[in-house]
């Protein structure tokens, strides 16, 4: 994360208004409550009246006033009283005369023009009187005119998102009075819709609020709804005027989608990658049919759910032709696209793709490594980059790219010996920036960074080696952004540069035929970070950057002239609008956090565009095919949930199922970073920026256009607020019983438990906050739980955790027994770099940070005979393996692996007294695992099943006959795990578990 830039944002300000209206469904209606009935007046003496009609056609005034005096009475104040429309060409006014039998009258337009009957005034009597061009008569000129028709409004109201069983409409015609609370009952029109025809008299619009008859109101956030005549619908706070009847029978869909456009095919070895633009349909495209011809297999048709398709294992040096058709839900099929052809090459010599292990990810504790900083197995691929000297890394002989896959393969037994069966590796794609060892500045998403690979130690070799040891590989992936230099194959910017006396040191000479890969050294410049392909002095064809090459008036740190378009920027016009966003983020909890750049090194993809989606889906299909076991998704919160749910998550599932089978797809583990650095259940009240929000599918339909849908979803969910989000019991026991979880509304993305992470300064706080949030996740048993990481420590600390060894032991004991998947950042098992600043970029040496090189601590040899079991070790790694927290985590992994309830069980604190105390159970087939856990403190468990319980830590046996078990406090960092019909003591006593 980068510091927030402060700048006014209209949309962010508008959202304050939205937030202010979140209580609208609970507020009282804005229309006035009706007063009590007026008292009936006493009988009064009869009085005379006169209704005076005045002819308007001759005068054609804009206003008419009657100035009069009852016989024997006083005149009204000038200009008199206003007259009102009566019927065509007539106005009228009814006046009270008391006991008088007539009146004197004159007429005027209110601005000095009078008709006073030639100075004599008009002498009028009682009853209906007409005055037309000086003539007086006793009649009602409008008597034969039919009364004007009353205006009507037919209102349909949708309660689908509210679940109301009764709906009333409380309304006020413009200029009229409100109905009595709660208003008029609406009638059920069709599923989810209610209807009422309202009489507006002469009014042409009304104000309305709706309620369920039990005090719950929808008054449009306090603003009421404005509705006109005719048919209108009100759905999810949106009024649609002149609407069609939402309950009318839907005509059958006979319209086919448009044909997919711009189909492109490119070959890579014996694979062909296909992209195309999304087809359109009046009701939505559900799938595509890809038809392949060529080779010896004849015509092959494959159904695809996205707009990208990777066809693999084809014949060598063979031409294939592809066409694509779109299909809608009714089965209508579009015309075929224009054909696209690609010719395969030779079969690559790389090892065959692997296959994911495909087991429940909750069984696998995770060890998180920054690959480039873990262990150096091949010094020939080490690279320091442009900041090697400036950072201080050179002085320490510590190039930023130092660790590699070869080193990781060599130390898999160290990780397995700790007891971990999953390894989370930082992004593997080719990066390009000044300081890119961490992997989050992707440049070529289709290429593994050569600075990580070696002969015999490719990425595929790492995956295969891990699988051979029963260990999984979780790959860190980035969908939100590319490097500042764009994404090769999609768009790479060209900046202004000039090799003059000031800048020749910075801009490398162009070397035709030389291609940047981060590893190969350009022979001319002597750099592996060559930039000769990134700049131009002449304005390139198609340039969109504003004021190309003109001096800005500013100076660089060296005092050199700075030019426009000299550096990638979202606001310069350099990046195409169809691929990248064009703004800087202003509000981390605003809509712009999903649609603007986070940092100058992170060029923000427009992930709602099909071309971008195709590029990313195609890239990550490659790694799925290699057999990785899951994806950790970086910056997931900065992409709208609708885009995840519509595009990326289904594409992942489809590809895994296609390549590796349904069981592998079910257990392919996707967990997202939805960064919320607060202690709240919901991130500052914003559901769209909260981790649990991303675990759910959408609950309503949005526009077919992904950009529009993202905004619609954002506004709708913000209006629904935190009190109207879905909830789940998937993580909780029903009493003492396990129940089958309901994952029907699961999005496909699990998340890092940011709330526990934020509160791990104290284990009790982490436990309490975790419990408080668990009903809002689809299934919190899949939450990834860690204390600190490569970004932050607890409470958004910028240092690696420094709470002390006892506190670490207590945190670990909680993580390994509570719901969720325990995860450890490399080196935490020895409190590596505790208190060190986690990251300072190139402003300080890496050796002084939380991303220091770990290799010195694992130098030597190590052999693991099983998880948590080291059969042999020599050198420094042998010393490392003797550290107290190493012993602690080894045994925690051993205990967790032996007790299914601690891996996949639901939990409850019902009937339990104590601090960090809970019960967990998992039941499936012949497995029934029930465990009582207390961390550090004592506990009493009431209402538990009777039977024999054995503590997995000490082997202590208790027989319960009255449903109650009390356990003494084991001490800080220690714990007790009493298992019903358990296996007995697991492992040997250590510094904490004893």
Automatic annotation (TrEMBL):
Signal peptide limits: 1-27
Region feature Disordered, mapped onto this chain: 338-360
Alphabetical list of InterPro entries matching this protein: CBM25, FN3_dom, FN3_sf, GH, GH13_cat_dom, Ig-like_fold
SMART domains reported in the protein's UniProt record: Aamy, CBM_25, FN3
Keywords annotated in UniProt: Carbohydrate metabolism, Glycosidase, Hydrolase, Metal-binding, Polysaccharide degradation, Signal
Domain Fibronectin type-III, first and last residues per copy: 256-347
Cofactor(s) needed: Ca(2+)
Stretches that traverse the bilayer: none
Pfam families: Alpha-amylase (PF00128), CBM_25 (PF03423)
Gene3D superfamilies on file: Glycosidases, Immunoglobulins
Record protein name field: Alpha-amylase
Organism: Streptomyces hydrogenans
């Amino acid at each position: 994360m980068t510091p927030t830039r402060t700048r006014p944002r209209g949309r962010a300000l508008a959202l304050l208004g939205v937030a202010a209206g979140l209580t609208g469904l609970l507020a009282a209606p804005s229309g006035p409550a009706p007063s009590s009935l007026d008292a009936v007046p006493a009988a009064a003496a009869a009085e005379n009246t006169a209704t005076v009609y005045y002819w308007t056609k001759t005068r054609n005034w804009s206003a008419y006033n009657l100035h009069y005096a009852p016989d024997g009475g006083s005149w009204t104040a000038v200009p008199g009283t206003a007259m009102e429309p009566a019927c065509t060409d007539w106005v009228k006014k009814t006046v009270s005369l008391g006991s008088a039998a007539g009146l004197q009258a004159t007429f005027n337009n209110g601005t000095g023009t009078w008709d006073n009957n030639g100075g004599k005034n008009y002498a009028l009597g009682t009853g209906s009187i007409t005055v037309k061009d000086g003539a007086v008569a006793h009649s009602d000129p409008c008597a034969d005119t039919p009364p004007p028709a009353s205006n009507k409004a037919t209102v349909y109201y949708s309660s689908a998102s509210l679940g109301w069983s009764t709906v009333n409409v409380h309304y006020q015609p413009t200029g009229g009075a409100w109905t009595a609370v709660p208003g008029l009952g609406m009638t059920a029109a069709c599923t989810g819709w209610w209807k009422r025809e309202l009489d507006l008299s002469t009014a042409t619009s009304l104000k309305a609020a709706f309620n369920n008859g039990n005090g719950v109101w929808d008054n449009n956030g306090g603003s009421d709804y404005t509705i006109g005549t005719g048919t209108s619908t009100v759905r999810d706070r949106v009024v649609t005027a002149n609407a069609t009847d939402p309950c009318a029978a839907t005509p059958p869909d006979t319209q086919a989608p448009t044909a997919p456009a711009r189909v492109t095919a490119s070959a890579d070895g014996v694979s062909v990658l296909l992209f195309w633009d999304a087809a359109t349909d009046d009701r939505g495209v559900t799938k595509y049919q890809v038809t392949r011809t060529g080779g010896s297999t004849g015509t092959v048709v494959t159904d695809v759910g996205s707009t990208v398709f990777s066809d693999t294992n084809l014949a060598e040096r063979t031409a294939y032709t592809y066409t694509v058709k779109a299909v809608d839900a009714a089965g209508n099929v579009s015309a075929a696209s224009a054909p696209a052809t690609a010719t395969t090459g030779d079969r690559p010599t790389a090892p065959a793709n692997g296959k994911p292990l495909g087991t429940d990810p909750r069984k696998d504790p995770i060890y998180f490594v920054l690959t480039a900083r873990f262990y150096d197995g091949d010094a020939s691929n080490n690279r320091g980059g442009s900041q090697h000297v400036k950072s201080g890394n050179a002085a320490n002989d510590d190039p930023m790219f130092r660790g590699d896959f070869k080193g990781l393969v060599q130390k898999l037994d160290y990780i397995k010996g700790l007891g971990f069966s999953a390894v989370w590796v930082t992004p593997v794609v080719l990066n390009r920036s000044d300081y890119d060892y961490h992997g989050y500045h992707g440049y070529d998403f289709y290429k593994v960074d050569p600075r990580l690979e070696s002969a015999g130690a490719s990425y595929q070799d790492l995956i295969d080696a891990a699988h051979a040891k029963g260990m999984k590989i979780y790959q860190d992936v980035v969908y939100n952004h590319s490097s500042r230099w764009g994404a090769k194959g999609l768009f790479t910017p060209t900046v202004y540069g000039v090799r003059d006396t000031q800048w020749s040191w910075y801009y490398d000479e162009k070397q035709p035929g030389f291609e940047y890969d981060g590893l190969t050294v350009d022979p001319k410049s002597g750099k592996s970070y060559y930039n000769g392909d990134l700049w131009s002095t002449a304005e390139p064809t198609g340039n969109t950057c504003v004021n190309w090459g003109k001096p800005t008036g500013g100076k660089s740190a060296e005092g050199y002239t700075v030019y426009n378009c000299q550096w990638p920027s979202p606001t310069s016009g350099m990046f195409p609008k169809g691929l990248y966003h064009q703004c800087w983020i202003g509000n981390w909890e605003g809509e712009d956090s999903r649609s603007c750049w986070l940092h100058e090194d992170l060029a923000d993809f427009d992930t709602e565009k099909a071309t971008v989606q195709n590029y990313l889906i195609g890239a990550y299909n490659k790694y799925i095919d290699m057999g990785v076991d899951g994806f950790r998704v970086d910056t997931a919160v900065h992409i709208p949930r609708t885009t995840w749910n519509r595009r990326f998550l289904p594409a992942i599932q489809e590809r895994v199922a296609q390549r590796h089978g349904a069981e592998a797809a079910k257990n392919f583990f996707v967990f997202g970073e939805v960064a919320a650095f607060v202690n709240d259940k919901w991130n500052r009240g914003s559901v769209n920026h909260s981790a649990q929000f991303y675990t759910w599918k959408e609950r309503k339909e949005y526009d077919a256009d992904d950009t529009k849908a993202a905004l619609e979803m954002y506004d709708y969910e913000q209006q629904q607020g935190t009190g109207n989000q879905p909830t789940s019991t998937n993580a909780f026991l029903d009493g003492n019983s396990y129940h089958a979880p309901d994952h029907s509304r699961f999005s496909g993305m699990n998340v890092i438990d940011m709330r526990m992470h934020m509160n791990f300064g104290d284990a009790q706080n982490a436990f309490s906050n975790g419990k408080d949030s668990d009903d809002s996740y689809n299934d919190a048993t899949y939450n990834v739980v860690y204390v600190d990481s490569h970004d932050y420590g607890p409470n958004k600390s910028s240092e690696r955790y420094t709470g002390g060894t006892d506190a670490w032991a207590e945190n670990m004991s909680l993580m390994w027994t509570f719901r969720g998947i325990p995860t450890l950042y490399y080196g935490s098992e020895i409190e590596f770099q505790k208190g060190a600043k986690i990251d300072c970029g190139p402003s300080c040496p890496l050796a002084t940070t939380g991303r220091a090189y770990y290799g010195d601590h694992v130098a030597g040899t190590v052999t693991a005979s099983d998880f948590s079991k080291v059969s042999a070790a020599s050198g420094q790694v042998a010393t490392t393996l003797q550290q107290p927290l190493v012993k602690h985590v080894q045994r925690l992994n051993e205990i967790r692996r032996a007790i299914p309830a601690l891996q996949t069980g639901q939990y409850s604190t019902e009937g339990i007294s104590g601090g960090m105390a809970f019960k967990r159970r998992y039941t499936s087939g012949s497995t029934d695992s029930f465990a009582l856990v207390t961390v550090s403190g004592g506990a009493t468990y009431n209402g538990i099943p009777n039977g024999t319980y054995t503590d997995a830590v000490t082997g202590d046996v208790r027989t319960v006959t009255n449903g109650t078990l009390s356990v003494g406090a084991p001490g800080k960092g220690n714990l007790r795990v009493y298992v019903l019909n358990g296996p007995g003591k697991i492992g040997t006593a250590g510094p904490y578990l004893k």
